[in-house]
Design brief:
181 residues, alpha/beta, Double Stranded RNA Binding Domain, Arc Repressor Mutant, subunit A, 2 domains, four-stranded mixed beta sheet, 5 helices, globular
Amino acid sequence: MNYHTYTDGPLGRMLLTSDGLALTGLYFLGQKYQAMPAENCVEEPWAEPFAQVRAELAGYFAGARQRFDVALAPEGTPFQRSVWRALAAIPFAGTLSYLALARLLDAPRSVRAVGAAVGRNPISVIIPCHRVIGSDGSLTGYAGGLERKRKLLALEAVQEPLLQHPIPQTPLGTEHAEYRA
């Protein structure tokens, strides 16, 4: 069974989706590529893991949490999931350029494909696509809007770009692996 609910936060209303075990989506309402709940998706505010997601987001936005522990299961192609795993390895208050991300994935000629996968990240904030910036340090592209990206980076007090991060070995997919961002 698939579930959805909504929650409000300091950057606006968000849609949460779940398969009953793990978070499958977290979208700002109105963001680019926002998914709509499927017809067979039941609105259930207390389905797993929505209470945990709300609590962890509240801690993050209050400045009391730097990582998330909720189980994640975003759906995407193997390439997209590899990009999302790499995003999750960018530490709190760190940034990485699209080019550096492509190099980490051993795909330096695929910067546009990497950028497209970053833009299709289905779990905003928790899989921190807001930490990806232009090679010149500029804020570029964010499905939730550049103003939200700016605010998320300010919340984390990002100072210097960090250009190398290990890619986590934990598989991301239907296994509902604990996946730490």
